[in-house]
Amino acid sequence: MIRSTQRFRSPAPPSNTGSLDGVILVDKPAGPTSHDIVDKIRHHFRLDKVGHGGTLDPAATGLLAILIGKGTKLSNTFLGSDKVYEGVMKLGEATNTFDAEGTITATGDASTVTEDALRQAIRKFTGDIMQLPPMVSAVKINGVPLYKSARKGIEIERKPRLVHVYEFALLRFENPNADIMIRCTKGTYIRSLCNDVGETLGCFAHLASLKRTCSGSFFLKDAIKFDDLMNMHVEDLHNVVIPLKRFSPSATMTQQ
Fold first, then answer.
1. What is the domain-level CATH number for residue 132?
2. Stretch 233-251: mean pLDDT
3. Which of 70, 76, 230, 235 has the fewest CB atoms within 10 Å, i.e. the most exposed one?
4. Domain that holds residue 52
5. The pLDDT of residue 21 is above 70
6. Residue 3: in which H helix or E strand, if any?
7. pTM higher than 0.90
8. Using a CB cutoff of 8 Å and minimum separation of 24, what contacts does 138-145 make?
């Protein structure tokens, strides 16, 4: 569930980082929002320009690209890249947010669901899919995030969006929990996929946990733990920042 973001009201004084421009691959823990992570890094290292390359829900973990200095101009590159996620789908319960952060809205008997039946249901959600954004999401309708309307109990009409799921794999099934892996295009809601699979099976389902393992050509295995990053000194950032020259020549030229 989307939570309010704590913002630092007074900017920290700029640090002496020289021309520190690029990307830090961070392994985000569960709990803070993506914006929380950005704010904490900006404040801790006293940086002027910090952004991120794709939101993760507060409860989600994994790869979060932190953009530093002129690296913030790479935002669209990361936002538009394909993603890979691993997670756990729990059968037998639907929630109002489609994930474990929400309130249970319906329950069903998942005890008779077989691995074969689950695999068949999952196959229906590969390829091109028209996906309806969940009400509890940051998608804006008429300039207002959907989650703000959801908090007031207002249901907003949404238009389905085209996404593409390259692969939806069942890694392990121990009823009612299913370990899954999904490769997909930007803007794909994994919790919506889990909810849809549950409806297809007739037993309901929601996303119990989620971890992003890949964004474009960058991988979680190469990321630094957030706590480890926050224990570093600003002069050590040069050891973890991916410089702009590591990106395509055209992208690098736009940063000049």
1. 3.30.2350.10
2. 81
3. 76
4. 22-80+216-253
5. yes
6. none
7. no
8. 138/2, 138/55, 145/2
pLDDT band at 149 (very low <50, low <70, confident <90, very high): low
Which pair of structure tokens corresponds to residue 42?
Answer: 């900006």
Residue type, 256: Q
Same domain, 71 and 190: no
Dihedrals φ, ψ of 167, to 5°?
A: -150, 135
Burial class (CB in 10 A: 0-12, 13-18, 19+), 36: middle
Q: Which of 27, 57, 99, 196 is catalytic?
A: 57
Q: For residue 179, indicate whether it is catalytic.
A: no
Cis peptide before 176 (omega within 30 of 0): yes
Q: What is the pLDDT of residues 24-33, one digit of tens each?
A: 999 999 999 9
Q: 196 and 91 in one domain?
A: yes
Q: Are 188 and 83 in contact (CB under 8 A)?
A: yes
What angle do helix axes 190-201 and 115-123 make, rounded to 10 degrees? Answer: 120
Residues 189, 127 share a domain: yes
Distance of alpha carbon 4 from alpha carbon 53, whole angstroms:
20
**Mean pLDDT, all residues of the chain:** 87
Give the tens place of pLDDT for each residue, 77-111: 899 999 999 999 999 999 998 999 999 999 999 99
Which pLDDT score, from 0 to 100, does residue 158 have? 72
Count up the domains in the chain and report the number. Answer: 2
